[in-house]
Amino acid sequence: MQGFADRVDIAEDDGGEQRRVDIIAEHLGMKRVGWIFSASTAAERDCILSSSEILAMARLQAQSGDPYFATAVVSIWSDEEGAHSVHFEAFQCSKQAVQLFSDGWFVPSDDPKFVATSPDKEVAIVAGRDTRKIENEFLVTVVPIMDHSGPLTTTFPVENRLTGQTVDELRACMNAAKSKPYAQRLADFHMLLFLSQRLGESDVALLCDAVRTGGEVAEGYRILIDSLAGLR
Fold first, then answer.
1. Could you tell me the residue ranges of all domains in the chain?
2. What is the rounded CA–CA span in Å between residue 114 and residue 81?
């Protein structure tokens, strides 16, 4: 994924990471329910979501086939005194917008505040008026965020950050939780994804099953992970 001022480009997964993510999620009893990206604030670009971002939302919702598939947008807001805070909201394209996208009605727009309609289609009718440009707000709905907690920890670095991931972070996270049962020490999605680069699919599946059920982690895996982290 690569971000620009008014759009997010989603690259094809050529490294198999998405497959590893899906395996981990499945064995943790989870499933993918959306995607998340960071954006400049609405004040900086005159819209909460740009037209290209809405088209990306519609495409991903259509591909998922899940009526609850959502998009979370994170941005940094500043108050009058210069203090910064993290602001996040969740959205969905409307069912009609997803259907129109799937039917080829929408094309890229040169105005980030409007989604353009294809010249090959009939003129759209919005608020009783014929138009070739639809304001973004007509195509999205706000999704309430009920809570911000989950069964996993979030201490291990995220993989798509400038800081990167190394065995030093693995060692630090394992040491920080050394008083917990071994399966709980591994209960971090990004840590499991990091380990999946070095273990086979069946090995990762067994580790995730142990995390989900609170079961024992086989001694061989404990030795392997501790050795990788420099704990042995």
1. 33-143, 167-229
2. 32
